[in-house]
């Protein structure tokens, strides 16, 4: 049995998918998280049910890629059942999509999710009357708390009901949705609580909002750098000891295992605490409902650069990983804004770059490490916005509009917080066990053969051949080789430095280290990101992204080096 889950952004579809399948899915309290269909299998009374989580959409007009993906799936795949997940806090707006879904003639169940939040706000919905009007079963749920999930499972096995068809043009459908909502809803008191009102007055104040947002970002970087540092140092020393011990045995296998695998992969894995704390903080901001308010707050600012508030969602996601962030641009209706957002996204500093920052900041700026790291993130954002401004006034000229719904504030559910943090951290660990493992062995091989010292190795030949390009920055061939390997995955930069066993404090000054950090922030996206750009906006733009980002990185690193020479003299 195949069940399609369809609904507006931010209605809790992914939370419901977790409740129905027990799956480990990413959950975010803002529109745009589910940019592709996700599949999860659940066992209900011995029957296997496949749930397909489609992108969050507001309509089936196919104006955005998300809407086209959802519509095409329903038309071509013909699922056995549609779970229309509705936000009970805003029934009228959600019913607009519900009425459009009836035209497919597919059995359907309406799921009134977040019913606990609705009732807390004095909203009472008569589900029996709504069922009579639409012709399909209606189930009240709170996916996060598990309320109504068992009843929903029983209805799924019953197969739902064939919906009554509602036809008409856009305005007629809107009027019908309005009439139905008024007919089945009683609002005892629909106003923000005193706490929510007070929080919005502060967080969305035009004078205080931005400083508060920057303060949260500052706390995040300080928390990530300072709290996790002892754990990172402990793991690093442990992997160093293990690598040294194993490489002490004779034979190429032990050399590869110690100097290659453990030195490379272990050097990256030692930064797992930093990555986990970063994702934990971001998850709290997302699940609490703060991130959408930050998005709304900066919309006016973003419009000055030719973007809009919805562009902020992929950009913030880019702090985690640029690949899903680029996929999230599908929720942007305006094609030119979508292309610009995808092209500047690699300038957002993903988690893969964090090990590089922590390594260099700890060695060269031990007293101001968190300040340096935050400065890199801010510089990345500024260069992204400047790049967007240039693109939107040259290659991608045009106007754009933005509409967004603000979800209620919520205390993050511990289970959802854990799932979100772990799923993102697990992705980092999996890369260490696959891509970085392979690259560590490759780097070990090219630094060990064809024989003799490392100065005569394949790695030295490659690094020395390209090093003249970076001579103005004063970087050694070893550091250049690390940059080349980082093209596969940015974590491999640290892994390469670990395999080469470089004492970077002996071969570069603080200003050179900062320029190097800037270059790793801005230069060519990793292979996976380039593949995502090519898949979303085409090969021509993927090539442009590589050339443009490398040019920007080189120029910025060169300027930083020259300014640094003057400053440190």
Structural class assignment = alpha/beta
Radius of gyration: 26 Å
pLDDT averaged over residues: 84
Question: How many strand elements?
Answer: 8
As a percent range, the share of strand residues is 5-15%
* Low-confidence blocks of residues: 26-35
Give the domain tally.
Answer: 2
Fraction of residues in H or I helices: 55-70%
Largest sheet: 6 strands, mixed
Question: What does this 3D model show about the protein?
Answer:
- The chain has 569 residues and is of the alpha/beta class.
- The protein folds into 2 domains: 186 residues, P-loop containing nucleotide triphosphate hydrolases (Rossmann fold, 3-Layer(aba) Sandwich), CATH 3.40.50.300; 349 residues, no CATH class.
- It is 61% helix and 7% strand.
- The chain is built from 28 helices and 8 strands.
- The chain has a 6-stranded mixed β-sheet, with helices on both faces. The protein has a two-stranded antiparallel ribbon with strand order 6-8.
- Helix 3 links the parallel strand 4 and strand 5.
- The longest helix is centred in the last third of the chain and has 30 residues.
- It is elongated and about 80 Å long.
